[in-house]
Amino acid sequence: MASQYIQNSTLQGYLAYVDGKIVGWCNANTKMECLDCYGWFHFMTEVNELPIEPTEKVKSIFCFVIAPWMQRKGIASKLLEYLCEDAKKEGFAYVEAYPFIEETNPYDFYVGFQKLYEKMGFRYEKKTKHRFVMRKTL
What we know:
This protein is an alpha+beta fold.
């Protein structure tokens, strides 16, 4: 399914490399595109309940992971900075992220960490039962 999404540009993202090896991945796409994705529907049900204006140009971060042995080396910050610069060039008004409120379950780390988003200038927009909606104005 992911291959099909990539081929039709529904799944888009960024890779981070160190010495020719992939060490990070960030799935980021137009929020309206994400709303039609099975993974979004399955994992982001709380966020689906929040309204979005169809005219809002929002780039959503659905997945953000850095290889464990490469964490705490500034890679996530550089990748997120690049993503935001790219989104601005593409005409997006905002970048959104959806980190979990409780960061205790390592399986939930796939969405990135609220402290990273805070550090990079994202503000808390909304709160659901389990997640924050954080947004950065570009």
